[in-house]
Amino acid sequence: MTSIHDLATTAELLVVSDFDGTLAGFNPSDIYDVPISEESLSALRTLAHLPHTTVAVLSGRHLGGLKKVCPLEAPVLFAGSHGAETSGEPSGERGPDEQQQCALDALDARLAEIIAWEPRTYLERKPFHRVIHVAPFVDEDPSRAREVLDAALAVEHEGVSMLEGKNIVEFSASEENKGTWIASHRESLGATGVLFLGDDTTDETGFRILREEDLGVKVGEGDTAATERVADRDGVAALLSELAAGRTRWADGLSR
Fold it and tell me: What is the DSSP-derived secondary structure letter of residue 167?
């Protein structure tokens, strides 16, 4: 099984991390005011400036929202909407086409009925996605939150796919997902090793496409295709710091 040492010494490394639940915590009242691990950010900055190393934050947030909340900067790549939008790529900051937009508009009308039925529900509109959130009231009214999620799962959604995550139901008009994004960028970069970290069901597409020379790390509990697991965001920070230190030693050896 691939180790951190293996990744630290691979010829071309791609490091990909989810944002919410992996680098950052949650805030049900304000999705743009979330606690972020400074240790993880520091490790990613170090990695991003090392030779033969590419770092990306791959999130379900739309690209504009991800850039707003995550303080990392280039050369770190930002990929939003589960990979449908990518910073710095001409084809990566486009919006939905006419067919996709029509499907989303039809979906909006159906989801509006859920919002009217339970006004505490938050509907997030992203360029390629619509997301029903029950986090604002799941702790105080878990049974009602479950009813809302079930209602969302029962919505007709022609032209879009649907997935339940942590306190959400997400609808997507894009065929892009974290797995397709990682596979595409592994090929374009010629990566000989990939590290991918994530905590939610939407990250499983990424874990499933990883190869023997890669490492998938699940954050927290739950069934997963990842080969490794850390308990929480502190575990993420420790792992990234270990990789950054090892990769720095490897890079120093290249210049000798």
Answer: T
pTM of the model as a whole: 0.88
Say whether both 41 and 162 belong to one domain: no
Strand 13-17, strand 129-133: pairing:
unpaired
Amino acid at 89: E
Strand ranges in 18-106 using DSSP code E only, listed in sequence order? 53-58, 77-80, 85-86
The DSSP element (H or E) to which 196 belongs, if any, is: strand 193-198
Q: Are residues 41 and 160 in the same domain?
A: no
CATH code, domain carrying 80: 3.40.50.1000
Secondary structure (3-state) at 168: strand
Q: Are residues 131 and 163 in the same domain?
A: yes
| pLDDT, tens only, 182-233 | 999 999 999 999 999 999 999 999 999 999 999 999 999 999 999 999 999 9
DSSP 73: -
